[in-house]
Design brief:
This protein has 175 residues and is mainly beta. It has one helix at 3-18; strands at residues 42-47, 60-62, 71-76, 82-88, 92-95, 101-105, 111-114, 125-127, 133-136, 142-147, 149-152, 162-163, 167-172. Strands 1-3-10-7-8 form a 5-stranded antiparallel sheet, with no helix packed on it. The protein is elongated and about 125 Å long.
C-alpha cells in the first residue's frame, strides 16, 4: 500500500479520536414561575349622606351611626387583604343650578368601617375621613364604610336641593 493510504488512514483515526466525547450522565431540574392575582376590588356606594331638610342659619349634622342617613359604601375583595382608604371630600354642596353653595365639614371622627365583626352602631374602627389610612378586609373579604358630616347653611341660604360628590378610593396596598 502506498504511503498516501497510510497517511489518510492515520488522519481519519486521529479525527475519530478528536470528536468530543458524549456526555454519559446528565441531570436537570425544572421549576415554575408562579403568581396569584388577587381578586379585583369592588366598591359600591349604597347610601347617600342625607341631611334631609335644613333650616337657614342652623347647622345640621348626621353621624356615621345614623342608619339610613349616613353615607355608606360596601367593599368586597380578597379575604383579609390590606387596603388603603382615601376620601375625596367636598367643602361645599351646590344648588342644582350651581347659583349657590352651602358649606359642609367632616371632622376626624365622622367616618367608620366594619370588617364584619361589629356593625354600623359598633364598628371595627372610627376613622378620620380627612386622612388616608389602611385597613384589612374581613374574613369574608368584605367591609362597610360609613360617613357623616355637618352642613352650615347661612341665615340667607337660598332654598333648593344641594349636592356634591363624596368619593371613596380603595386600593390594595400589596402588603
Amino acid at each position: 500500500m502506498n504511503k498516501g493510504f497510510w497517511t489518510t488512514l492515520l488522519i481519519v483515526a486521529v479525527c475519530a479520536l478528536w470528536v468530543a466525547p458524549t456526555v454519559e450522565a446528565q441531570e436537570h431540574g425544572t421549576i415554575q414561575a408562579l403568581a396569584t392575582v388577587v381578586s379585583s376590588l369592588n366598591v359600591l356606594g349604597v347610601n347617600n349622606l342625607n341631611f334631609g331638610t335644613v333650616t337657614p342659619g342652623l347647622n345640621k349634622s348626621v353621624t356615621r351611626t345614623t342608619i339610613g342617613l349616613a353615607g355608606e359604601w360596601e367593599i368586597t375583595g380578597t379575604v383579609s387583604a390590606e387596603i388603603s382608604l382615601d376620601f375625596t371630600l367636598p367643602g361645599q354642596l351646590y344648588l342644582a343650578d350651581s347659583s349657590a353653595t352651602m358649606t359642609v365639614l367632616f371632622n376626624s371622627t365622622d367616618a367608620a368601617y366594619d370588617d364584619g365583626t361589629g356593625g354600623q352602631a359598633t364598628p371595627t374602627a372610627v376613622i378620620d375621613p380627612n386622612s388616608p389610612m389602611t385597613a384589612h378586609l374581613g374574613i369574608g373579604g368584605q367591609m362597610n364604610v360609613w360617613i357623616g358630616g355637618t352642613v352650615h347653611p347661612t341665615i340667607s341660604q337660598t332654598g333648593g336641593n344641594y349636592a356634591a360628590d363624596i368619593i371613596l378610593t380603595v386600593a390594595y396596598t400589596g402588603s
